[in-house]
Design a protein that fits this description.
4 strands, 1 helix
Length: 47
Amino acid sequence: MDPVILDDLTMLIGPDLAARLPEIGVSAGVGIDFVVLAMPARPKFTG
């Protein structure tokens, strides 16, 4: 997955091992990274 970095949020969009296309948002806190969004990719990312 190629990351897209938006301020404090990194979006990962790309195929998983089962060929599904998820979008995952990861944010960083003090000493920890946490997932803030995990869902099937929206139509704007799937064409």
